[in-house]
Amino acid sequence: MPDAYTTALMLLSARELSEAQMRTRLTRRQLDADEIESAIQKLRHDGTLNDRRVALAAARIESAIRHRGRTRVLQKIRQMGIDGSIAESAVNEVFEEVDEGALLDRAFERRLRGGSPRDLDEKGRARIVRGLAAQGFAIEAILKRLRT
What we know:
73% of the residues lie in helices and 0% in strands. By secondary structure, it is mostly helical. The protein folds into 3 domains: 42 residues, Arc Repressor Mutant, subunit A (Orthogonal Bundle), CATH 1.10.10; 47 residues; 48 residues.
């Protein structure tokens, strides 16, 4: 059976993981707790395990590919077990490069499916607002976009 460090390297070869995700996966494999801690310290020290890098990558994927708003991106990064201050810093850095208005416009048009907001009844508008809010966009921005 491979040691914790070797197992961690194998896991990282497949995908980037946060420290919390790594700790969970190594624990699930029933490795010794001291060995897990030692492996994580070694990986963190040599830069192989870096929560900031993971947070930045996740924020870019969530915003650019999945078209999620700031709130949802932050939530996703925190779910990965990344510290709140690192998560917020990464989201702020990524959203400096992203045009949130254009992101909302694309999400809005996908939900309208070529229709016009004027064609929607009250239930249709409520459905779109709920959906876009769940994607992490600010309610104020959604309502403003809906009125224009």
